[in-house]
Specification:
Elements (H helix, E strand, L loop, with lengths): L6 E4 L9 E9 L5 H17 L3 E9 L4 E8 L2 H9 L3 H8 L3 E10 L8 H8 L4 E2 L19
Antiparallel strand pairs: 1-3, 2-4, 2-5, 3-4, 5-6
Length: about 150
């Protein structure tokens, strides 16, 4: 199995206060889309590193499983919203949405002065996968039936 190490990034001077943690999991429909999606993910990783209010990010790529997971910490939900509306994230989500099997996006409370641990964030967000936006459950037969947790 191909193993890609997790790609972490932490801000030099993270904000104060508890902040928020965002856990996103995306599963692609087709294995052949993995290289292009990884390139897109790396561009978005650079965007996070330059985004106001971003505290930390971890990208976990599991290419053979067609799965990409991010755990990011932000000063507040306004910083997350500004990031999501900016390029390249905005265009990437529009372009990739039809090629996703599942997508989950879970927001969790942060802890002041502490970066989120990946295992804790993934555990808290587990069970929140849903079909990609705009896709029916019939088009995504393996998607769990749990609603998106917020």
């Amino acid at each position: 199995m191909i193993h890609i190490p997790d790609l972490p990034w932490t801000a030099a001077a993270p904000g104060s206060g508890a902040g928020v943690v965002l856990v996103t999991r995306l599963e692609l429909e087709r294995l052949r889309d993995v290289p292009a999606f990884l390139r897109t993910s790396l561009a978005i990783r650079r965007q996070v590193a330059a985004s106001p209010g971003a505290r930390s990010l971890l990208l976990r790529a599991q290419p053979l499983a067609r799965t990409f997971t991010t755990v990011s910490a932000w000063d507040d939900e306004a910083a997350v919203a500004a990031f999501a509306r900016a390029e390249p994230h905005r265009g990437a989500m529009r372009a990739w949405r039809p090629r996703l099997r599942t997508f989950s996006n879970t927001t969790l409370p942060g802890t002041a002065g502490t970066a989120p641990t990946v295992d804790a964030a993934l555990s808290a967000a587990s069970g929140s996968s849903r079909p990609a936006p705009g896709r029916s459950r019939a088009a995504s037969p393996r998607a769990p039936r749990a609603p998106l947790a917020r």
